[in-house]
Structures are given as C-alpha cells and as structure tokens.
Amino acid sequence: MSSPQAATARSGSGFLDSFFKISQRGSTLGREVRGGLVTFFTMAYIVVLNPLIIGTVKDGDGSLIGGGTDPGVSIAKVAVTTALVAGVVTILMGVFANFPLALATGLGLNAFIAFSVASDMTWADAMGLVVLEGLIILILVLTGFRKAVFEAVPLQLKVAISVGIGLFIAFIGVIDAGFVRRPAAPTGPPVELGVGGSLRGWPVLVFVLGLILIAILYARKVKGAILIGILAATVLAIVIEAIGNIGARTADNPGGWGLSVPKLPDQWFTKPNLDLIGEFHLFGAFDRVGVVTALLLIFTLMLADFFDTMGTMTAIGAEAGLNDKDGIPPNSQRILIVDSVAAAAGGAASVSSNTSYIESASGVGEGARTGLASIVTGICFLISMVVAPLVTLVPYEAATPALILVGFLMMTQVKDIDFKDIEVAFPAFLTIILMPFTYSISAGIGAGFVAYVILKVARGKARQIHPLMWVVAALFVVYFAIGPLTDWLT
C-alpha cells in the first residue's frame, strides 16, 4: 500500500511530465535536472565576465554604469543584475517555449556596446538602443517575419549552421581553457598550442584530465557523464589551488587560471543591489549621436541578435533530435518571442542585450530535452544572486571540457551535407569555418547566405532562391559593410 507522500510525488511528477512532455521527448526528470545544472555550470562564467567587461568601462560622460565612480560597486551591481535577468528570462524560456535553451547577456554584443557605443553617449543612452533593438525584433517575430526567414533557409544550410556552431563552441572551449592561445609575438601565427607551442601549468592539466574523464564516462554511457566530469575537475582545481597557490592567468603568470581562481570564498553570501534596473534612456542616443548613427547602431545590434538565435536554436534542436524534417525546432515562434523579450530586458536592466546561449548544448548532451532543464538553469542563476562567490569555484578549465564533447557531437551532423553539390556545399563550408574563424555565429551565417545566393544566380537558378533569402543576403551585405557605410553617412 503506497503512502500519501508517494502518491503526491507521483502526481507532481505526472504533472511535470505532462506539461513539459518529458517522456514524449524521450527524457526523464533526472536527465532534465542534470542537464539544467550542466548548462548553468558551463555558462555561469557570464556572472563574472560581464561585470568585468561592462562594469569597468567609462561612458561618454566619464561615468561607470549607474553613474558612479567606484569600479568595485559597479562590478557588484552588474554581477547581481546579470544573474537576475539571466534567471528570469531562462525560466521564461522553459515555461513559455518548453525548450532546453538558456539565456544571458550576450558576449560580443556587450563588448561592442561597452567599447564602441557607450563611448559616444551615456550608458543609459546605449541601453536605450538595446531596448529599442529588442522591441523591433519582437515586432518582427509577432508579425511572423522572423520565423518566415528561418523557414526560408535551405535545410542543408541549417545543418551547416549546427556543424559550424559545434566547431565554434569547441574552439571557445580550448581558448578559454588556455589549451590554445594567441601568441605573444606579433609575427607569430594567430593561435598556438599553450604557451610558446607547449602546454604549461596545472590549470591546463585540469582541463585535459576533465576532458578525458568526460569522454570515458560518455563512451561508457554513464548517466551524468558531463556533470560528473565538471564537478570532479572543479574539486581537483580547488585542491591544486589550495596546495600550489597558482593564481590568475596573467602575462607574468601564463600558467594561471583563466577568469576565476578556484578557491573557497571568504564570504559565502552577498546582499543583492538592484539599482541598475530601469537605468536606460529610450531615445537618448538620438540626441547624442544623431538619428542616422543611432539607426545604424540599432541595425548592427539587431542583425547580430536576429541570426545568432536562429543558429543557436537550430543547433540545439538538432542535437536534441527535436527538429522536424525541415530543421525547425518545436515552438520556434515562442522561442523567438522569449529571445526578443530577453534582448529588451537586458537593456532595461542596464546589463546589455540578453540572448540564447550555445552552451545550452552541454545540457542537451547530458540528456536535456525540455524546458524543465531551462527552469533548473534559471533557478541556479537566481540563487547565484546571493551566493555569487560560489560561481567562481568553477573555473574555465573545469567547465570547458563539456564544450569539446558537445562540439564533437554536433560535428557529426556534417554527414547530412551533400558536398558534391557546389551550390550548397561551398556556402555550407563558409558557414562552418567562419563561425570559429571570426568568433561570430552571425558572420558565418551571413557569409553562407550571401554565397548561396551568388552561386544560385551564377548558375542561372535565381528563380530557386526564396524571396526572403534575397532580402536577408542584401541585409548581410550591409552588415558586413557597416563600417564604411557609417563613415559615409555620418
């Protein structure tokens, strides 16, 4: 005879299974929880990194974010608000779109805003542009334009996007771990193995051992392989730091830890300061830099956001086996709506545009298939608001092995591209290689789209090109030439 508690547990589990379609998608409650945790561990760095990028940069008026002058205060505010917005929008993705996709402040966009946009205006003015960009994309989603563009993309180019993102996140992994680095000598190659062509330092060893452990556990089909690997590597990193006092990676200490040093914090809890929320001026940039410049900046932000998410959700859906025969993920319209809202929310909270994270693929690699994993990730972000010091316990070197394994899994889709057909093979090739080479998903997608249109026209098959592909290719030409166009128009 079962107890009332057991009956209640089954009832709760049944509700979750029905609402999130866990069994229908071939997953389990345990997989979703593990997947959500893994995704958080592989992208928690943003709570540390975003404040270092935007919290220490002075705007056009010589002020830090929030109008202060103390970098320590600014960094603390950005860290807490970054975690808050990431948590809320990721939970929204899980509940509203039921998709294993997490969101947070977009890297690349935040640096572009901090160093290229905010230098000519106040930070609040720059955040106003981000809010406007997000609202414009939301309108494009609600009118069906964004989804229509997504559906117009040929299937094999969608496959190429997934493969390219796989290489991209693997490249991110080896770079962040210090396994591959930019050489000190300006005349050397763009990147090299370790320091001076050889691997040095205990942190790199942690990365290598973590990668080997995850690969072995995954090959042996151990449940929680990625999560176990991250946690084991983190424990090893903490022990090594406690014994060897390795310190942070710097020019004088190339064998140090990347971004955060894995040591137990002196203070375990922090009091959240949410003063940054609402610190934006919607149309302030138009007065500071003029209408034309402001519109060009919005266009640049919008196009990057627009196609980064399209590529990310395609890759996540493909890796999870959720995409339909045309390569379209389930609830794609809802995914795009949440992503658009997240972009505006990041600006409204003064922490830069929030967007979908390809690191979500690590959670999918752990077995996540539904939005429940996103809710777990979002809750972790909310918890990190008050236990922010704990986020620094997981260094790059312990988390990035997961990205290598997932990059491999996504790379296996390359077999679905017909490399005998030059009209799709060459655009696919450009898409795949340019994502890691340019460190940009949008650049890879744009090059592939433009090449696809050019080759179709060159072979007399212009009628086979979807009308929206013409529009998108033209927009990408503008995107690639945005620098000269800005100089010419302003």
From TrEMBL:
PANTHER family: XANTHINE/URACIL PERMEASE C887.17-RELATED, XANTHINE_URACIL PERMEASE C887.17-RELATED
Organism whose genome encodes this protein: Kribbella kalugense
Keywords, ordered alphabetically: Membrane, Transmembrane, Transmembrane helix, Transport
Protein name: AGZA family xanthine/uracil permease-like MFS transporter
Membrane topology reported for the UniProt record: Multi-pass membrane protein
GO molecular function, one term: purine nucleobase transmembrane transporter activity
The keyword Membrane is assigned to this record: yes
GO cellular component: endomembrane system; plasma membrane
Similarity remark: Belongs to the nucleobase:cation symporter-2 (NCS2) (TC 2.A.40) family. Azg-like subfamily.
